[in-house]
Predict the structure.
Amino acid sequence: MTERFTGSFTQQEPIPDEGIEAALDVMRSGRLHRYNLAGDEVGETGLLEREFATYTGARYALAVASGGYAMSTALRAVGVRPGDHVLTNAFTLAPVPGAIASVGAVPVFVGVTEGLTIDLDDLAAKAGQAKVLMLSHMRGHLADMDHLMAICREAGVTVIEDCAHTMGAAWNGVPSGRHGLIGCYSTQTYKHMNSGEGGFLVTDDDEVMARAIMLSGSYMLYGRNGTVPPAEVFERVKYDTPNVSGRMDHLRAAILRPQLRKIDAQCAAWNARYRVVEEGLRGTPGLTLVKRPEAERYVGSSIQVLLLDWAPEAVQEVVQRCLGRGVELKWFGGAEPTGFTSRYDSWRYAPSEPMPKSDRILRGILDMRLPLTFSLEDCALIARIIRAEVGAVWQEKAA
Ligand SMILES: Cc1ncc(COP(=O)(O)O)c(C=O)c1O
């Protein structure tokens, strides 16, 4: 009998009961805006900022409306101006070049390796073209951050990390988001914490955080944020930093706080699922697993494999056959961006020179979500289905 998977790749876990209760309390209070605080109450948003700063080890954390907003705010806070060039990954998703374009800057794309990380040789070659790197840890793959930071230090490039897929991950024991000047995170519904929409920006830098708080829309109430740089820093920046509203509200903060308390256990649960799929696919002819370096502590909330040098029609056939058995794979090689796939040549507002080495890799990437609503048995079944269908198409090709 042909096995079929019947679960949903977009089904997240429910919000913890504690979060639902806290959200109800916020709604009963009527005070949803982050600066609507009774007396000297800190409020859910401020408390979340303190807890997220502690979790990441950063001096400051700012809770905002989305991950994309965190990135554009980070760019503004480090002084990126219209027309400036900003380095970023060729393999990432639309909000990343979008954040760069939103401040009028111009993305300069850097290639991708078979490890699905930014190509450090290409980065070194292009480092002279920009003062800022918006580094996307796309699908949770961390580059050699020691090497990357050395390249950027040498070239005088400021690093902003897009940690939308790496909340809970680390390189050589240093959390993702803590290598560069600023770390940006998303709490959009498919991320490691779920508030529907939302995000964070973390930094140790007084002036960057003062600017970010002003940018997010503080109405001069910045003293009431959860983590606040010294008052004299605000005096320096407050008159020349525009308000570009994008705050988080208490309702979202309320549902995130209990999720943050259990994030480590969640990451372990993702990795257990990741390893079952990885083991189930190991040795599949024609399929390359992505090697995870020793120094990387990853969070396997999704898995990617490569069908390198396959004809596009054959990859498409694998995708269709898997879908027919209930397994949704996203392919980054399609001519048109669909759903959550896209790549550097999809963003026509930001033309790039061709990158044939990267194109070869992008054409081979298959990507799959691993929501925590999947059991380990589900993961084993999914791996069996992919293995069988890749094998069948591979044999057809060989015949
Ligand atoms: C790689 C990456 N960076 C940033 C973001 C931005 O997050 P948000 O959707 O919260 O704006 C996303 C969201 O999908 C993403 O996938």
